[in-house]
Amino acid sequence: MNKRYIVTANASRARVFAHQAGVVREVDTLIHPEGRLHTGDLRTGGKGESDDAVSHSPHQSGSDDATMEKHAAFFAKEVADYLRQARTQGKADEFIIAAAPHFLGLIRQKLDKPTQACVIHTLDKDLSSADEEELAKKFRPPLN
Q: Where is this region: Disordered (predicted)?
């Protein structure tokens, strides 16, 4: 019988579930707190206070978006590395990945070819707060 992992993820958290014989149980959680912060909170060197000369616009410059993207890409690589290790260590030989649409794309980019070949289903939806029972129903064969 194949060893299957279900991974639910967004830019701040990835949860890993073992899925065998219709039973789903959580085996690991990866946390990336930077993915949860607002872009202004990611800056270094200050206390987050602006000087009077700086505009008080709620929207920051494009560099903030680049910072968030960099953090998301870094975490996507961490998730992809975790899956590669699970595959090479024989912990799992099939993967189902459910992630927020943009983050799912980043994970796909970071997966190596052998691990990509083990992904049997993807879902572009953030299910990172779903419980084990919900995931067991969602990913019961045949996959929907």
A: 35-67
Q: Is residue 51 part of a domain?
A: no
Is 53 contained in some domain?
A: no
Q: For residues 15 and 29, is the Cβ–Cβ distance under 8 A? A: yes
Tens-binned pLDDT, residue by residue, of the chain (144 aa): 789 999 999 999 999 999 988 899 999 999 987 766 544 444 444 444 444 444 444 444 567 788 888 989 999 999 999 999 999 999 999 999 999 999 999 999 999 999 999 999 999 999 999 999 999 999 886 664
Cβ–Cβ < 8 Å for 32, 12: yes
Decide: residue 141, CB within 10 A, 0-12 exposed, 13-18 middle, 19+ buried: exposed
Neighbours of 38 (CB within 10 A): 10
pTM assigned to the model:
0.79
